[in-house]
Amino acid sequence: MLLAALPLVALLGLVGVFAVTLRNPSTDLPSVLVNKPAPEFLLPPLEQSGVPGLGRTDLIGQVSVVNVFASWCIPCRDEHPLLVELKTRTGVKLLGINLKDEQANAIAFLDELGNPYDAIGADRNGRASIDWGVYGVPETFLVNGDGVVLLRHVGPLDRTSLDDLVSAIRAEQGGS
């Protein structure tokens, strides 16, 4: 009888672990890039976006934020107004990586919600996003003027994570 109940007990244990994990998703996933140089990459522009493409050289010289997004990503749509606010509040160089998206859909997304990006690279095959260690969209990275990744946020920004990011940007910019 005890042996017959063992699979049920194991199943209930797994369900419990999954339930706890789903209730408390971590946006603090480890990244081998934090405190290391951003990967080498060069992406063509998202045509008709009005901004240039994106490469590693664009990360050099000033603090920047790299945001990985896609028009098919519902959390990206929810996050987008906060990216517009981030740009307004800090003036930070905001760079986008558009992941595996149809150009027309990405342009419609930006036309509808606004384009806060200074540059957008079209990562059509997802290779650059893999090099960045992206698990899924959206993800956001803070990069210093030397091209070193300082912070990684997995998932959509919310009010708290936006305020934390603004503080980190201001600290990196020297309190300005």
UniProtKB/TrEMBL annotation:
UniProt superkingdom: Bacteria
Major subcellular site: other
> Its Gene Ontology molecular function terms?
disulfide oxidoreductase activity
Q: Which PANTHER family match?
A: THIOL:DISULFIDE INTERCHANGE PROTEIN DSBE
- What organism does the UniProt record list as the source? Devosia pacifica
Give the family per the record.
Belongs to the thioredoxin family. DsbE subfamily.
- The reply to whether Disulfide bond figures as a keyword in the UniProt entry is yes
Protein name (record): Thiol:disulfide interchange protein CycY
